[in-house]
Amino acid sequence: MGLDLGQASDYTALNVQEQKWNAEKKRYEYEMRYLDRVRGMAYPEIVEKVSKILQSEKLRGSEPARLILDKTGVGAPVADMFKIGPIKPIEITITGGLTASNVPGGYHVPKRDLVFALLAVFQSGRFKIAEGLPLAKPLLDELTNFKVKINTNGHDSYAAWRETQHDDLVLSASLATWYGERFKGPTGPLLFTCPTKPGSGGDFSIYNAPTH
Q1: DSSP symbol at 124
Q2: pTM of the predicted model, to two decimals?
């Protein structure tokens, strides 16, 4: 699960990916089973809802699901709220450096590494999105609109083609994919179901759909 925490007026995005080993092609692939974002929801409520999803019997695999969250900025106090309960998230602090490094509780990761991890699996056909997810098209639009600029100091900066474009969905997906690529392992079948569809922008829900 990748969780990109936004400011009070910004979107908070959550996604669930299933990492699967393709024996025929001898590679790991990712299937996005869930994608949603909300705005205006209090952080304690976000923590409660995400925790319930993570611990739900409807989310099962051969390995426990892991929560990867962006600790940068507002994420630090919210990460501490998760730790009060049984959830021990993997905390990602986005940096402007060139290499990822281990820190207590998680990692410092350059944004380029997060984005490139998702773009690599997406462009190589290893990333699938469940049919019917209302936010699938906005995510694909964000991936298409993302660009890398090399400034005069030789550092990477990332922006959308349009100033109004959000990157919360891309960042949420990148968190889960980056961790999956860094820590690859065999996974079993995932069951993730709920009768309601997400995407309303006002609540996190669970939705099951076939991938394509």
Answers
A1: T
A2: 0.82
